[in-house]
Automatic annotation (TrEMBL):
Biological source species: Karstenula rhodostoma CBS 690.94
A GO molecular-function descriptor: DNA-binding transcription factor activity, RNA polymerase II-specific
Domain Zn(2)-C6 fungal-type residues, every copy: 20-53
Taxonomic lineage of the native organism: Eukaryota, Fungi, Dikarya, Ascomycota, Pezizomycotina
Residue ranges, compositional bias (Polar residues): 543-556
Subcellular location: Nucleus
Record keywords, A-Z: DNA-binding, Metal-binding, Nucleus, Transcription, Transcription regulation
Signal peptide: none
Domain of life: Eukaryota
Transmembrane segments: none
InterPro entries linked: prtT, XnlR_reg_dom, Zn2-C6_fun-type_DNA-bd_sf, Zn2Cys6_DnaBD
Name of the protein described by the UniProt record: Zn(2)-C6 fungal-type domain-containing protein
SUPFAM superfamilies: Zn2/Cys6 DNA-binding domain
Gene3D superfamilies, alphabetized: Zn(2)-C6 fungal-type DNA-binding domain
Length: 615
C-alpha cells in the first residue's frame, strides 16, 4: 500500500502546486509569482532577478553556499598559481559555439566626401553631422541584417541620385534608434517623408533605388497604431511588380532602353535587389499567412544562381536559401490533403533545411539559426492545424516545442549586431535595430507554446511548466522593448498576458477560428481570442447602403448622419492595464488556481544547447 501523503487513489502521485519562485524560496520569503504570471513576482521585478518557478528546486542553506563559494575560490586560486598567473585559454583558440565572437554578415563603409552643409525635405532640415551620424548608424547596425545597397555608401552621391533611398534610411534610423537624439527627430520627419514616399511609389516606372527603399521599409516598417495599418505587404506587391518590370528576375540584365524608361543598374545591384525582394516578400508572406509570390521554378533557379555567382555576404545568402526551400515546397504542402504524404513532405523539407549546412558552409550565427528555426516552426504549425491523426500531430508538436523554446532563447539573448564604435548603447536599444520579422517570429513561438503546451491539458506537467517559463520570457522581452503603452511590442506583451489567464483546454476539441493562414493561423486566432476575452466583437460587419435595404428614397446631404466608425479588431491589442483588471467580470474564469499544477518548473533550463544545430 502506498505511503500516506505520497500517492493517491490508483497509485497516482499527488503534487502540491508550486507557488514560489526559486529566488524567493531560497530566502524563505512569500512570493506572488503565480498571481503575477506571466510577469515576474514583485520581489524579482524590484531586484531585477530571473523569476523562475522550478518544482525540482531545493534551497541551499546559507552556510553550505558560503562553503561552496569558498571551495570554488580556492580552486580558482590554485589553478591560477599552477599556470603561473597566465590565462587558461590560449589566445589562438577558435570557438565554434554560439558564445564566440562572430563575424558580421556584411559591412558597409560610409564616405562623407562632398557632403552638403544641410539636407532638407520640405520643412524638415538636418545638418551634415546629423546626416552622417545617422547613415553611419545604419551602416553599423542595420546594413549587416540586410546588405542590399552598395556597401560603399557615399552620402552625397546617394542624396543626389537616390533621394528617396537616402530619406528612407534616415527615417528608419529616426523611428528605431538606437540613439535617443535620432529618435527625437522622427515626429518632424514622418509627415514630409510619407508624402514623398506616396508620390514616388505611384510614379511609373519605379527605378532600382526606389525598389531598394521599399524593401528596407518592408524589413523595418515605420510605427503604426495597429498591425492592420502596417503597409509592408502592400509594399511587397509594388516592389515585386516593379522588379519584374525591370527584369531583375533574369540572369542576363536587360538594356537601358528608352522604351523601358529606367536604367537597368549594375549586375551586382540588380542581383542583390532581387534577392532582397525575394527575402523580404517571402518572410512577410510567411508571417501573415500568404503563399510566396516568387515560387516559379525558373525564378527560384535564378535566385540560387545569384547566390552562387555574386559576392553575397554568407549570412544573407544562407537566409535567402532558407526561404528558397520554403518557397519551393509551401504550395505543395498546402495543396496536399493526404496526411501520410504531408508527414513525408515535412520530413523532406526538414532534411533540405538541415542540408544547407553542407551545401552553403557558413560560420554559425544566431541569425542563421533563427532563420532555420522560424521556417521549421511555420512548417510544423501549418501541418499540425490541418492534421486529424493524433499520433502524427503529436510528433510534429514535439518538434515544434523544442524549436519554439530555442526561438525564445535566441530572441532573449539578442539577435542584433554590436560595434566597438558604440560601446555605450544598451542591449535594449540595440534590439530595436533588428528587422521586424524577429518580432513576428517571437510572437509565433509564444503563441505556439501557449496553445499547444502551456494551456493544453494533454501536455505533460514538465512541458507545461517549461512552456510557461518561456512564455514569461517572451512577455518580459516585449515589455522591455516597448517605448510606450501603445507601440506594437507593448500590445504584444498585453495579448500574451491576457491569453495566459485562460483556463487549460483540450486542443483536440478546440478548433481554430482562423485556419486558412498557414502557420500564422494560430497568431490570428490568438488575437481574435484576445478580443473575445475583452468582450469585443471580433467580426467586422459590412456596411449596407440604403439601396441594399430596399430604401431608394434620397436624403439631403445636410441631413445625412456621419458614417459610423467601424473599429478594427485585427490588431495585437489596444488595451490598458485597467482592461486586464476588468477581466474578472468576464464569463470565462481567470483564477490561477485552475491552471495546471507546477506552473513554472523548468527542468530543461540548462539544455538549450541541445536544440542548436551543429553549424
Amino acid at each position: 500500500m502506498a505511503a500516506l501523503g505520497l500517492s493517491g487513489p490508483l497509485g497516482r502521485s499527488i503534487h502540491r502546486p508550486v507557488k514560489t519562485c526559486t529566488e524567493c524560496k531560497q530566502v524563505k520569503l512569500r512570493c506572488d509569482s503565480k498571481a503575477k504570471f506571466p510577469a515576474p513576482c514583485s520581489r524579482c521585478q524590484t531586484r531585477n532577478l530571473q523569476c523562475v518557478v522550478d518544482s525540482s528546486f531545493r534551497r541551499t542553506p546559507a552556510r553550505r553556499r558560503v562553503e561552496e563559494m569558498a571551495k570554488e575560490l580556492e580552486t580558482l586560486r590554485n589553478q591560477r598559481e599552477d599556470n603561473g598567473f597566465k590565462s587558461t585559454v590560449s589566445p589562438d583558440t577558435h570557438f565554434d559555439s554560439p558564445d564566440s565572437a562572430l563575424e558580421q554578415s556584411g559591412t558597409a563603409v560610409v564616405t562623407e566626401f562632398g557632403i552638403k552643409e544641410q539636407y532638407q525635405l520640405e520643412g524638415f532640415v538636418i545638418d551634415k553631422n546629423t546626416a552622417a551620424d545617422m547613415i553611419k548608424v545604419f551602416a553599423t547596425f542595420y546594413y549587416p541584417h540586410f546588405p542590399v545597397v552598395n556597401p560603399s555608401i557615399s552620402i552625397s552621391v546617394m542624396y543626389d541620385t537616390a533621394p528617396l533611398l537616402f530619406w528612407t534610411l534616415i527615417a528608419i534610423v529616426a523611428s528605431r534608434g538606437p540613439l535617443p537624439q535620432h529618435i527625437a527627430l522622427f515626429e518632424h520627419l514622418k509627415a514630409p517623408y510619407l508624402a514623398q514616399l506616396r508620390l514616388e511609389i505611384l510614379t511609373a516606372p519605379v527605378p532600382l533605388q526606389t525598389i531598394q527603399a521599399l524593401i528596407h521599409l518592408i524589413m523595418w516598417p515605420l510605427p503604426s497604431p495597429r498591425q492592420s495599418h502596417d503597409c509592408t505587404w502592400l509594399y511587397c506587391g509594388v516592389t515585386i511588380n516593379a522588379a519584374l518590370y525591370m527584369g531583375l528576375h533574369h540572369s542576363k540584365p536587360s538594356q537601358s532602353l528608352r522604351s523601358i524608361g529606367v536604367p537597368s543598374g549594375s549586375p551586382r545591384a540588380r542581383a542583390s535587389t532581387w534577392l532582397g525582394c525575394f527575402l523580404a516578400s517571402t518572410s512577410v508572406g510567411m508571417h501573415i499567412g500568404v503563399s510566396p509570390h516568387i515560387n516559379e521554378t525558373t525564378e527560384l533557379a535564378t535566385i540560387e544562381n545569384f547566390v552562387r555567382t555574386y559576392p553575397i555576404p554568407p549570412e544573407f545568402a544562407y537566409q535567402v536559401m532558407v526561404h528558397h526551400i520554403m518557397a519551393r515546397f509551401t504550395t505543395i504542402v498546402l495543396e496536399n490533403s493526404q496526411e501520410t504524404v504531408s508527414q513525408s513532405l515535412v520530413k523532406l523539407i526538414d532534411t533540405e533545411l538541415d542540408s544547407l549546412k553542407s551545401r552553403f558552409p557558413t560560420p554559425w550565427s544566431p541569425r542563421i539559426e533563427m532563420a532555420v528555426l522560424v521556417a521549421k516552426l511555420h512548417l510544423y504549425t501549418m501541418t499540425i492545424i490541418r492534421m486529424q491523426d493524433v499520433t502524427s500531430r503529436e510528433v510534429l508538436m514535439k518538434n515544434g516545442y523544442s524549436v519554439a523554446l530555442r526561438i525564445v532563447y535566441l530572441s532573449d539573448q539578442g539577435l542584433f549586431h554590436r560595434s566597438d564604435d558604440y560601446p555605450e548603447i544598451p542591449a535594449g536599444f540595440l534590439q530595436q535595430t533588428c528587422p521586424k520579422n524577429y518580432f513576428r517570429a517571437l510572437m509565433l513561438a509564444a503563441v505556439f507554446l501557449l496553445r499547444f503546451f502551456a494551456l493544453n491539458i494533454n501536455a505533460s506537467a514538465e512541458e507545461q511548466e517549461t512552456a510557461k517559463n518561456h512564455i514569461a520570457i517572451a512577455q518580459r522581452f516585449f515589455t522591455a522593448g516597448a517605448h510606450d503603452a501603445t507601440d506594437e511590442k507593448a500590445r504584444a506583451a498585453l495579448v500574451i498576458e491576457v491569453l495566459s489567464r485562460q483556463q487549460p483546454m483540450d486542443i483536440d476539441s478546440t478548433k481554430l477560428k482562423i485556419d486558412d493562414r498557414m502557420g500564422a493561423s494560430i497568431v490570428f486566432d490568438a488575437i481574435t481570442r484576445g478580443h473575445e476575452l475583452r468582450n469585443i466583437k471580433a467580426d467586422v460587419e459590412e456596411q449596407t447602403s440604403p439601396q441594399d435595404n430596399g430604401d431608394h428614397q434620397q436624403q439631403p446631404i445636410a441631413d445625412m448622419p456621419p458614417p459610423p466608425v467601424v473599429p478594427e479588431f485585427n490588431d495585437y491589442a489596444e488595451m490598458t492595464q485597467a482592461d486586464i483588471s476588468a477581466m474578472s467580470d468576464f464569463d470565462i474564469p481567470l483564477d490561477f488556481n485552475a491552471l495546471p499544477q507546477d506552473l513554472w518548473g523548468d527542468s530543461m533550463w540548462g539544455m538549450f544547447g541541445t536544440f542548436a544545430p551543429p553549424y
